[in-house]
Amino acid sequence: MRIHFAVFTSLLLSGAICLPARAEDAVAPQAAPDAPPVAVTKQARLDQLFSDLKRERNERAAERIAGNIWNEWFQSGSASIDLMMQWSQKAIEGQKFDVALDFLDQVVTLQPTYAEGWNRRATVHFMMKNYGKSMSDIDHTLQLEPRHFGALSGLAQIMALTGHKQSALEAWQRVLAIYPMLRSAQDQVATLSEELAGEGI
């Protein structure tokens, strides 16, 4: 079975580019003229984005929504954590994986509730073929954000690479339940379903 390594890494790292939402996609809350602005929490923004992502049937519009989700995930709320994440990204781009891990170890130690720190470290372990460590970090990510389609995609890739096709299929199906228009997940579900059917499973 052909596994597209780039699919996983691009999913997990693509959020670095901001994808602006269309003006017509924005829904402003209605308030009285003199009322103070209503503060919307990060969780509420994510809940709305995931709701939109699940309903969207246009692939490009879904990509924009997914990009906005990544942007929310990347916001740690800490300038020092954000800086270490930037340094880790530069190290990854330079294939200095040990350096990236040093930064990411600090990120998850200093802010263990920041899901994207665990997810980024899972990505680095995956690139280093440390699949056990990657799966451990994916588990941490999913405990903090069960809808993390990037982490689920990574889990699916690892399951496929280690010969667990049924588990890989189930992970991709979980991705599609969250992000139905993700083409790579659609393709993998189709491919794995055919392969498992051919094997009589």
UniProtKB/TrEMBL annotation:
Keywords, in A-Z order: Signal, TPR repeat
Signal peptide range in chain numbering: 1-23
Family matches, as InterPro entries: TPR-like_helical_dom_sf (IPR011990), TPR_rpt (IPR019734)
Matching SMART domains: TPR (SM00028)
UniProt repeat feature TPR, residue ranges: 115-148
Superkingdom per UniProt: Bacteria
Name of the protein described by the UniProt record: Uncharacterized protein
Native species: Mesorhizobium qingshengii
